[in-house]
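Thread: "does anyone have the structure for this chain?"

Original post by V.I.:
We have the sequence but no experimental structure in hand. Need at least a predicted one for the grant figures.
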Amino acid sequence: MPIHDVLVVGAGPAGLATAIAARHHGLDYLVVEKGVLVNSIFRFPTQMVFFTTPELLEIGGLPLVTPYDKPTRLEALRYYRRVVDTYDLRLSMGERVVTIEREDDGVFAVTTEREGVRRVREARHVVLAIGYYDLPNHLGIPGEELPHVAHYYSEAHAYYRQRVVIVGGKNSAVEAALDLYRNGSQVTLVHRRETLGDSIKYWVRPDIENRIKEGAIAAWFETRVVEIRRGVVVVERAGQRTELAADAVLLLIGYHPDAELMRAAGIHCDEVSLVPEMSPDTFETNVPGLFLAGGATVGRHTGSIFIENGRFHGERIVNTIVARLSEAGD
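Reply from O.Q.:
Generated one for you, tokens below.
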């Protein structure tokens, strides 16, 4: 079995950009992805529109063409398929990384699993471009595992004429609340802060504020959820507990990267913030030869990394690898 120069874990925009850079430099590379291509974007709400302009989603110099000011989820999926086809990138889908071990000779043994079958791939360098959208934050309260509770929102139709309690106060929660309200749901928004998040899209904020002001969407601020039961969400505000009727509950309170996988590979991650130890210039972690790209670089501070800036990590990582391989060959 060949030893790859670079094994990229994750086929999101950051991982694909890394693969393009590796291909450009003639490196032996492979991308493994446990889900589908750009899996996080695939799981975004069906009708989602990106906050950014199309130019800021582009990788590999390939233009993202759209008639709109801001691209849609569907256009992004189509675009990244075109990227893979244009550069004929080497991908292995549905292959989950189980362990990453650095052997005595510096080569990484990466154990993966597909449909219950495990295999070991070897690489001189590994790039974790694993994002964070696969791991939702949890409240750690009774009832969070009930079947009518979800940490993701796809589309409104399934919630028609239902009483939906949404927990959260940032873009994902607010946009879900507006979409559900306009498609026949009775929506209640619960947020532990005094006001909605500062990062809410500027064209969305007046919409949600006006819907709350007129009472079309009920809002409970400075309120925390303490329990979820069938048909009821128990909240607490100013020491008083109240039961809110709920046929469905959406816990849209953010996501975090897979610190467990990183720590098992030897990467030092802060206990609270999950921020990994790495060079800010090369994105190499405390484990020599093991790099991070995209959302995996920031721990719980997911609001600081987007496709716009994460797409540049791969080229810097590959430049470091190329220089190192060149020195080793001299």
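V.I.: this helps a lot. The chain has a mean pLDDT of 95.
O.Q.: and Residues 3-134+255-329 form a domain with the FAD/NAD(P)-binding domain fold (CATH 3.50.50.60).
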